[in-house]
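<given_protein>
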Amino acid sequence: MQYRNILPVCLLFVSLTSFVIPLKFYGLSGTKKWVVNQNSSLCVNGSTNINKFSCEILSYDKTDTLTLNESKSDREVALTGRINLSIKSFDCHNSMMTSDLRKTLKEKQFPMLHITFLSLNKLPDLASRPESITGLVNIEIAGVSKRFEVNYQITRDEQKVIHLLGSRDINFSDFNLIPPRKLGGMIKTNDRLSVDFKLNIKTID
């Protein structure tokens, strides 16, 4: 009689654990909210046939939230959210160059540059030592959106602020834009640009 009672209990245990084991196997551990602080920045570096230039947005004037879907596995980690940058905020430290860049990026028609975050290749350790990771983003300029893989350096300081440094080379032509020219075409801006952004992030517990 005792063995007859034990058998149904064992079957019930196996049935229940069949739902629990896959969750542990995939390492699911919830989500985290990352708030992008207003002292974040973005820099675009380029060159012409005669010199180099650097155009910056030195202070991000918004507060946006990114959502990190954490996983303890080595699988790709979903990172969702978007930052919106005003083209008018670009400063090339030269009034003519600043005007040319804004005009090239069609600032009047498309006043914002959007970076939409999609994923990270791994869950970051968030340590004081710099860690290299990669991630996918959509960059939208002048109404055209392109997907890119971005290289990141990520650290967390003693105040628990996360510093996410991203870099990626893009081309004007990726967004159907023609690089600016001056003096009848004698000064030509090269197609390639290097985009570097620094996000200072706080975690919402």
Q: What stands out?
A: The first strand starts at residue 28 and ends at 36. The chain has one domain: 23-204. DSSP finds two helices and twelve strands in the chain. Residues 78 and 119 are 4 Å apart (CA to CA).
